[in-house]
Amino acid sequence: MPKGKIVSIGGNLDLFPEDPILEKIIDEIKEDEDHSPTLSIIPSASKKPYGSAKQYSHLFSNAGAETQTIYPENREEANEESLLEKVRESDGFFFTGGSQLRITALLGGTQMVEEMHKKFEEGALVSGTSAGAVCLTRTMIAYGDSEESLLHGMVELSPGLNFIEDAVIDTHFTVRGRFPRLIHVVTEHPGVLGVGLGEDIAAVWDFEEMDFTVIGSSNIVVVDGKDIGQSNVPNIQYREPICVEGVQVHVLGNGWGYDLEEHKPFRIEDFDITHPNQEVLAKKDHQDPDDIPNQRR
User: Fold this and answer.
1) 240, 43 Cβ separation under 8 angstroms
2) pLDDT band for position 64 (50/70/90)?
3) What's CA 31's distance to the chain center, in Å?
4) One-character DSSP codes across 210-224
5) Which of 32, 186, 210, 261 could bridge to 225 as Cys pair (CB 3.0-4.6 Å)?
6) What does the alpha-carbon distance between residue 204 and residue 202 come to, in Å, rounded to a whole number?
7) Helix (H, G, I), strand (E, B) or coil at 169
């Protein structure tokens, strides 16, 4: 089992250093009080990668981390030794939002991702928001309009970066009405756990404990297909409505968790991370520039 943890964020993160999700990322990469951890910002998903990298670098620097940007502009650069050395120097990685296909088309199968996996196995943190969270699974959602997602063939999957094997992550889950497309994915792939992340909320994956815990101000919806009974998927035609029985749905919030082996949610009795109240949130004056509504993502 990898020693590293994963922090997957549903998008529209509150961009101030005291946000509990950001503090959790810093805590996970900090070995001791005298050590300033190095967090590498990977803005490959963004249409404006340098602006996105600058914003997150400033944010995480204020939160207590040393930051560097890793942005290969083509696949050749993602295999260069100078870039690989930056990966090896990192205590953690953060993928910004944008388009998950930009990430996988640029980085999938490169030595950069291979070195990141080695660091993850040794204990480095991997994190991402919006598209930067979607791409972390072995198989990811590439496209799928929410309105037609319960019609066969209307959700397209593609290979992700494979830091999480048996799950599919969706983001901006409730505000963009993406429940149908996660039902679609799990119905067609019952062995895959569907995790729908609301905005400003994170799942913290721990593969030594085989669970994830929840931090944030909204909800996470878990769609579990292990007890699926009948479905019409084996005989369905393109664009026909999907029918299924036995899909389990769990709704989790701050201070909850999910046991990946037992397939059961749980509450954390000694959970002491609280999210800032709404008065504090109302004062925020920043927003992730890559969290632009796009039902195709």
Assistant:
1) no
2) confident
3) 23
4) TEEEEEESS-EEEEE
5) 186
6) 6
7) strand
Shortest CA distance to 266 belongs to which of 225, 192, 206, 217?
206
- The encoded tokens of residue 24 equal 């959790």
Question: Amino acid identity, residue 4?
Answer: G
Three-state DSSP state, 166:
coil
Q: What is the identity of the amino acid at 226?
A: K
The answer to whether residues 98 and 290 touch, using CB atoms and an 8 Å cutoff, is: yes
Res. 41: pLDDT tops 90: yes
- Measured in residues, the chain has a length of 297
Cα–Cα distance, 29 to 93 (Å, whole number): 9
pLDDT in tens, 120-165: 999 999 999 999 999 999 999 998 887 888 999 999 999 999 999 9
User: In this structure, is residue 136 part of a structural domain?
Assistant: yes
Q: 293 lies in a domain? A: no
How many angstroms separate the CA atoms of 32 and 228, rounded? 46
pTM over 0.90: yes
Give the whole-angstrom CA distance, residue 163 versus residue 165.
Answer: 6
Residue 297 pLDDT > 50, yes or no? no
Residue 159 in any domain: the answer is: yes
Q: Please report whether residue 297 resides in a domain.
A: no
- List the structure tokens of 58: 């400033």
Domain containing residue 57 = 5-281
Supply 195's token pair: 């995790």
Give the tens place of pLDDT for each residue, 255-269.
999 999 999 999 998
CATH classification of the domain holding 245 = 3.40.50.880
